[in-house]
Write a structure and sequence with these properties.
By secondary structure, the protein is of the alpha+beta class. It has two domains: 162 residues, Ribosomal Protein S5, domain 2; 145 residues, Alpha-Beta Plaits. Helix 2 crosses helix 3. The longest helix is centred in the middle third of the chain and has 20 residues. Bound molecules: (3R)-3-hydroxy-3-methyl-5-(phosphonooxy)pentanoic acid (PMV).
């Protein structure tokens, strides 16, 4: 009744923002992401009859803040009448700061909890369960380039291209290390209810998904860069036009975009994407990673740099 699973975060190139069913946590739009290799979360779940309540140790310290959502994810995977669980997690990057820690955490916990209960599930089933805990977590069950499609009461997640078929790197410019001011679930609901751009965002997503799918199939960097930056800025426009406005950016976020624009005009194959946080993720050709890292490190307000290639989906250790 004890299993460990490892998962890496994924970074959406075509973003998910908004839910069409808050009960089942179903996204309003499809999305396309890349799974990273070098940032990881490992989760050990041990079910124990004598335990009075679930316990969480994160990087060897007791953590009651993240426990409720992880307990809920274990209920989703193992049923509400399960024995209590001792959860221990290790994560090698900052949590809840827009670095997709929820994706890797929930993907790993669902895989570990299912196995610890002795339940055999397909990757597609595990992806759906992880997605009920956090929409983006469904994508971390798969490696490389991943598409999540909306389909009735479920999501269908699939690998578009394995990680080694098109080696790209991601350089993350960390501009703030604290937790984000508004969680994505609450922020998405504010956008759905109040942004005048929300319906247009949902309506146009199929076109962006098709462009990105084609660019990935053709390994066309310029085409992928163009649609990914456009889609990211559209998502943030929906956030900014919400009431109250949802602005995750800071000065350094914008400075990083300028650095990336300059790199692009110098002929470097790089593009940016930004999630529900102030960090900037620069996706680049592996030949350009050092150049991109050096430029972002020298950008005002950048506190740290993380680098990663593309990696595999969640799995038992
Ligand atoms: O899975 P959640 O609830 O953390 O939402 C993630 C939303 C974005 O990261 C902003 C976009 C995405 O598709 O990952």
């Amino acid at each position: 009744m004890r299993e460990t699973a490892t998962a890496q975060p994924n970074i959406a190139l075509i973003k998910y923002w908004g839910k069409r069913d808050t009960e089942l946590n179903l996204p309003a739009v499809g999305s396309i992401s890349i799974t990273l290799s070098d940032l990881f979360t490992s989760m050990t779940v041990e079910f124990e009859d004598n335990l009075e309540q679930d316990e969480l140790h994160l990087n060897n310290e007791q953590n009651d803040k993240l426990l409720p959502r992880l307990s809920h994810a274990i209920d989703i995977a193992a049923g509400g009448d399960r024995p209590r669980a001792r959860i221990s997690s290790e994560c090698n990057f900052p949590i809840a700061a827009g670095l997709a820690s929820s994706a890797s955490s929930f993907a790993a916990v669902v895989v570990a909890a299912s196995a610890a209960m002795g339940i055999e599930r397909s990757v597609g089933e595990l992806a759906n369960l992880a997605g009920r805990a956090s929409g983006s977590a469904a994508r971390s069950l798969y490696g490389g380039f991943v598409e999540l499609e909306n389909s009735g009461d479920a999501v269908v997640v699939s690998e578009l291209l394995p990680a080694d078929a098109w080696p790209l790197d991601v350089v993350v410019a960390v501009t703030e290390t604290g937790p984000k001011p508004v969680g994505s679930t609450e922020a998405m609901e504010i956008s759905r209810r109040t942004s005048p751009f929300y319906e247009r965002w949902v309506g146009d997503q199929a076109d962006d998904l098709a462009s990105a799918r084609n660019a990935i199939a053709a390994r066309d960097f310029a085409a992928l860069a163009s649609v990914a930056e456009h889609n990211c800025l559209k998502m943030h426009s929906v956030m900014w036009s919400s009431r109250p406005p949802i602005v995750y950016w800071n000065d350094a976020t914008l400075a990083c975009l300028q650095t990336i624009r300059q790199l692009q005009s110098d002929g470097v194959d790089v593009f940016f994407t930004i999630d529900a946080g102030p960090q900037v993720k620069a996706v680049c050709d592996t030949a350009d990673t050092d150049t991109v890292e050096t430029a972002l490190r020298a950008t005002d307000g950048v506190r740290d740099i993380l680098r990663s290639g593309l990696g595999e989906g969640a799995r038992l250790r």
